[in-house]
Amino acid sequence: MANLASVSKPRKFSSRNSSLGDKIFDISIYAILTILMIVTLYPFINTLAVSFNTATDSMKGGIHLLPRQFSLENYKFVFADNSVYNATMISVLRSVIGTIVTVFASAMVAYTISRPEYVLRKFVTIAFIITMYINGGLIPNFLLIRDLGLLDSFWVYILPGVIGVFNLIIIRSFIEQLPDSILESARIDGAGDFRTFINIVLPLCLPVLATVALFSTVSQWNSWFDVFLYNSSNEHLSTLQYELQKILQNSNTTSSAESGFANSSADSNKVSPLSIRATMTIVASVPMIIIYPFLQKYFVKGMTVGGVKG
């Protein structure tokens, strides 16, 4: 009995140490995550505060979480030109259409190169991967777009980026992890490759497809340089990002006649490049912030299961 009592005491002491160590570890993790959350959220909240603050007061600095002098002049200045609304519609259209086309096309190619019966799959995969490291350059790309007749066209936003190699590899890796028995049973039932892809593969690939859709949507929404290169002369095909870029450039001028967006010199003095830059950031970020929560669960699962294999 004495031996049992002596043995039980150290075990009880060890359990206490273990419990205390676990609590310290949990507290440390929560503290680190809290710090990371603050570091991540503070720049956005600060930018939001600056966008709702008067421009002259923002230039003094010292704004942190809340606007010091609340004002909507920055947003009135940004949305004063009617071209912003048309540009927003073009951005929405290119994001939606571009995402759908990119996801579907990338999934089809990924399914093809994931099939072991396709004898050229390694060659095709290597050919795609090479394009990630070797590019023809800006001038050859422009000449190619011109020769294809895509200048001053909406489809210049969609067709050149139909297949994203990184997205292709992620989807292929996900498909390769699907049980072969499911695909074989579909073939036994008489389903062809396209029907198997539509009815079997696509529903099983929803997590990774949602991940790719999020990547593609963000890329399409934030893109403005292709508008500058290919459609700068066509105002009807201008996007929101490009219009915001022009507004920022015009806000740097001191003359209201040069800006083209202010109605008077008094109006031009109500904004500054700092306030306009903050307002542009918020306007461009809000749609992505709204979309992300709906795709978050698919995004995490898709990145975990569909990770790139060596």
UniProtKB/TrEMBL annotation:
Ranges that cross the membrane: 24-45, 92-111, 123-142, 154-175, 196-218, 274-295
Q: Which InterPro entries match?
A: MetI-like, MetI-like_sf
- Keyword check for Transmembrane: yes
- Can you give the residue ranges of the ABC transmembrane type-1 domain? 88-295
Q: What is its main location?
A: membrane
Its record classes its membrane topology as: Multi-pass membrane protein
- Write out the GO cellular component annotations: plasma membrane
Record Pfam families = BPD_transp_1 (PF00528)
The entry's localization annotation reads: Cell membrane
User: Tell me, what is an example of a GO biological process annotation in this record?
Assistant: transmembrane transport
Q: Which UniProt keywords apply?
A: Cell membrane, Membrane, Transmembrane, Transmembrane helix, Transport
Q: Hey, which family's this protein in?
A: Belongs to the binding-protein-dependent transport system permease family.
Instruction: Read off the PANTHER family from this record.
Output: ABC TRANSPORTER PERMEASE PROTEIN MG189-RELATED-RELATED, POLYGALACTURONAN_RHAMNOGALACTURONAN TRANSPORT SYSTEM PERMEASE PROTEIN YTCP
Protein name, UniProt field: Aldotetraouronic acid ABC transporter membrane protein 2
The protein's organism comes out as Paenibacillus cellulosilyticus
